[in-house]
Amino acid sequence: MDVILVFNGLGNQMSQYAFFLNKKQISGSARFIFNRKSQKIHNGYELDKVFGIKQRTTVFNKLLYYIYLIVVFNKLRFISQPIIRLLNLMGLAIYSENDNYAFRSELLRPSPGIKFYEGGWHSEKYFRDVKAQVFQAFQFDMSRIGAANSEILHKIKTCTSVAVHVRRGDYLDPLNYQKLGSVCTLNYFVCAIQKMKALVNNPHFFFFTNDHAWVKENFAGDDVTVVNINTAEDSWKDMFLMSNCAHNINSNGTFSWWSAYLNKNEDKIVIVPKHFIANKYFEDIYPESWIRLSDY
Questions:
Q1: What's this model's pTM, rounded to 2 decimal places?
Q2: What is the dihedral of CA 54, 4, 168, 282, to 10 degrees?
């Protein structure tokens, strides 16, 4: 039995659920469980709030979650270790994603015993075989978009729209900046916009960000719209709007990743930073057709 852990923010949860959909097709016994430690991170379990994907709160799923907690529990090891040894004899194991996000085809095989899968699973190779199911699962409810977003959507659909996702906020925290926040610099966005202008006629750039003051300070003009409508539990509506743009300029994050991936424009151009994490190159994290920008 394969058990996929779902945790962190919306983008991560979407990757994990997409991986689950593929595992479910390969092995009908696959399940997903939400790691409750993420309940207070970002906006909690968002798959239900955004896409209506319910958690199965069966007794068996709760048991699986408690087994997982026992396996990862580092305190009172004199109690947990004998239990873990017994579970290992029964075929229990935890598979963690590689630090370089490299795709591992062997993880798609059916597993004997109970196997927990703990990771982001951001490479589309983990779920491209069920892409139609993924797109079916991740459909936004138009009735919840609201008038203000509908007005922006109309503007997006009536021009050559380019979504520019600028993530700052938590990326600027000292613990995150060197690893994440230093990737998408001002020069990155300037170069990405120049690149897009060279590839697309008369683009209009729609900026989505958690730092509107910074964007307005650095980007202005008749071809720029800064979208400042959706925050907190409504932030998923930015993903909806970005996925409806003709093209995308991404930050290094899964919210950006899914906004571009759900873009159904067959001729879309997606520009991303070469490095998802500073000074590390991950071969499998972006689809091959996306343009990786490095000379900035």
A1: 0.92
A2: -140
Distance between CA 124 and CA 109 in Å, rounded? 16
Beta bridge partners of residue 31, listed in sequence order: 3
* 149 CB-contact burial (10 Å; exposed 0-12 / middle 13-18 / buried 19+): buried
The SS3 of residue 5 is strand
Q: In which element (H, E) is residue 213 found?
A: helix 212-218
CB 59 within 8 A of CB 66: no
How many whole angstroms separate alpha carbon 47 and alpha carbon 54?
Answer: 7
Query: Strand order in 247-249's β-sheet?
Result: 224-227, 203-209, 160-166, 247-249, 270-273, 291-293
Q: How confident is the model at residue 79 (pLDDT cuts 50, 70, 90)?
A: low
pLDDT above 70: residue 187: yes
- Note the pLDDT of residue 180: 87
pLDDT at 81: 66
